[in-house]
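Notebook entry, structure prediction.
Reason for the run: the old model in the group folder had no record of what sequence produced it. Starting over properly, with the input documented here first.
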Amino acid sequence: MVEQRDGLERRPPLELIGRLFAQIGDLVQNELSLAQIEMRTKLRALATVGVFGGVAAVLALLGSIALMIAAIAALSLVVSTWAAALIVMAVLFVFAAIFALVAKATLARATPLLPERALKSLGEDLTWAKTRFSSSEGYKTSAETSPERSTL
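New structure, fully documented this time:
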C-alpha cells in the first residue's frame, strides 16, 4: 500500500489539475516577487556607484582648484613654476584614480542587472516540472518519483 498525502490519490483528476495550476500560479508569483526584491537591491547598489562616482568627480575638481593654486605657489619658491604645476597635477591624478577604482569595484559587484537567484530558482523549478511531467514517462505519483517515500 502506498502512503497517502493529504488524500490526493482519492481526489478527482480535474481537481488535482486545478490545484496544480493554482500552485504553479503561486510559484510564478513568488518567483516574480523574488526578482523584484533582487532588482531593487541591485539598483540601490548602482545608486551607491553614482554617489561615489559623483563625490570622486567633485572632490577631484575642488581638490585640483585648491591644490593647484596653493601647491603651485608654494612649490614655485623651490622649483620653477611649470615644474610645480606638473607635480601638483600628478598628485591630483593619483587621487582621482583611487576614487575611480572604488567606483569601478562597486559597479562590478552590482552588475549584471539580472535577478540571478530568481532566475536560477525558476530554472530549477522548470527542470523539476519537466522531469515530473515529461510526456514520455506519463504522470507519476509522488510515491513513484520520490525514493525516500516508504511503502507499507
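Summary: The mean pLDDT is 80.
The old model has been moved to the deprecated folder.
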